[in-house]
Design goal:
Elements (H helix, E strand, L loop, with lengths): L1 H8 L4 H10 L6 E2 L1 H11 L2 H7 L3 H14 L1 E2 L8
Parallel strand pairs: 1-2
């Protein structure tokens, strides 16, 4: 969770570079449905949007490709 939040708060750090690597398929992003709902809830908090300068729609546009590219993992660690 902290990686995605840190990535939207600053493009200068390692979290941003990790997210960028996932979006360009240099690393595999792993996600679960509950995790993506939690990302949405946290990343759209007013304090994170204010720091990042993003609107709710812009945050959604950022999160959507990460969600689409992520390899889904269930509670037992099973793949797609």
């Amino acid at each position: 969770m902290a990686t995605m939040v840190a990535a939207i708060r600053s493009a200068a750090g390692a979290s941003y570079k990790l997210l960028e690597a996932g979006l360009t398929r240099r690393v595999t992003l792993l996600a679960s449905v509950p995790m993506m709902f939690e990302y949405q809830a946290v990343m759209t908090r007013p304090e994170h949007l204010a720091t990042s300068g993003l609107t709710v729609d812009e945050e959604k546009q950022l999160r959507a490709p990460a969600t689409a590219l992520a390899s889904r993992r269930g509670p037992q660690g099973g793949g797609k």
